Amino acid sequence: MYTTFYLIGIGLFVGVAAWFLFIWAVKSGQFDDPEAPKYRMLDDDDEPAKPAQPPRSAKKKSP
To answer: CA torsion angle for 20, 22, 26, 28 (degrees, to 10)?
Structure first.
């Protein structure tokens, strides 16, 4: 008998925790626009990638 109450308590706890996680995900914007990522790869980049420049600390100063 105690096992039944124990399992009901665990089930309620897991259900409430899942509900709070879902509410948190909705409020943090996880479900705002699920369609955009699949179209993002089709966008053209108008500007070519800029070449990497060496860091300024790598340049040696001549006396």
So the answer is: 70
How many angstroms separate the CA atoms of 19 and 11, rounded? 12
SS3 of the chain: CHHHHHHHHHHHHHHHHHHHHHHHHHHCCCCCCCCHHHHHCCCCCCCCCCCCCCCHHHCCCCC
Q: How far apart, in whole angstroms, are the C-alpha atoms of residue 63 and residue 54?
A: 21
Tens-digit pLDDT profile for residues 35-54: 887 887 787 666 666 777 77
Under 8 Å between Cβ of 31 and 37: no
| pTM of the complete model | 0.53
